[in-house]
Amino acid sequence: MHTDPPDPLLVELADSMLERLPELARELAEIVSAAEPVLGDSAVVAAEDLYLTCRDNLAQAFRGLAAREPFDDTAPRENGRRRAEQGVPLATLLHSYRVGARFIWNALRGAADERGPRTREALLNHAETLWLGLDEFSEVVQGAYRDVVADQTLRTEREHNELVDALLSTGTTVWASADALGLPRQGWFCVLAAEPGALPGELAEALGGPVVWRRTAGEELGVLSVGRPALPEFDTRGRVGVSQPYDRIDRTADAARQARLALAAIEPGSRQWAAYGDRPLATMIAGAGGTALHLAHLVLAPLRALPERDRALLLDTAWAWCESGGSTGDTAAALYCHRNTVRHRLNRISELTGLSWDHPIQVAELVAAMRAIRLN
């Protein structure tokens, strides 16, 4: 625990404690077990296991007092890992080390008092170093414990993700995966695809059924057992796509595709959810991927020669006109301009693109192009 030359008085004191090691280890094991009953529960930690741990830690502390060997973290590190694997709570484990530290100090102080004032003074002079060493024991234990918990969490998460991935496949493992994840094989289900952070944590309770998640950096995908063929309204913090309800768990893969398309059909920056089928045009555009965006640029290519501000003004006006149901008056009111201004801007788009706002198919082409731009 220190690098200074050993004090002969402390060496003698440490040797006397090492001679009593089995007795002291048994006493400490009883004290720890009384302070933390879970460590005395043979179903969790065997009595012999607790005794050996106490013996090894006491030996390390006493040998360190005599400066016979450098600090060796093997015993506390192994104890931290083993207790984590046994399911002992970290708070319990750390408390046991505080109990152990007090026991070591009291045992050393009592033995030093029996040897006289010089030994007592030597121990007191060494107290700070001793306590720092005992604190280091606790830090090592805590670090090793958390390493195991982190490994267990990663392993559990990996196994969970593998089950969800199997559920989202079309293979023969779908049924077994559903069983392992606690989902029924039949009933009413839906899949939700959301931006990270878009869904509230209490969603499962709000929607009334068990849900399993597959979370990545760019997506949160949930398979939800809803118990009925309709999804109630729920609040979101971002964009969420929802599949059509389905009644057999082996149809989850297709539902996931629907949910992702429904998500892609919502404009970026929105805070709303949409079901597959709510926005047919936007969904078809989203499903076309890069092709839709490429064609949109071709349709609107003549506008690219305009300054960005002018181009945005024309497209925003056209989109407002579409959202108002083709009403020039409502569009003018929404944009705080005159009706003739709206007509002029629409006519300008027609002149540049060669597409007429009076021709249904050409209007559809313009709307589809604008929708593709807005979705991307």
Automatic annotation (TrEMBL):
Gene3D superfamilies reported in the protein's UniProt record: PucR C-terminal helix-turn-helix domain
Ranges where the CdaR GGDEF-like domain occurs: 174-264
PucR C-terminal helix-turn-helix domain boundaries: 314-372
RsbT co-antagonist protein RsbRD N-terminal domain ranges (all copies): 22-159
InterPro entries given in the database record: CdaR-like_regulators, CdaR_GGDEF, PucR_C-HTH_dom, PucR_C-HTH_sf, RsbRD_N_dom
Domain of life of the organism encoding this protein: Bacteria
Membership in a protein family: Belongs to the CdaR family.
Protein name per Swiss-Prot or TrEMBL: PucR-like helix-turn-helix protein
Organism annotation: Kutzneria viridogrisea
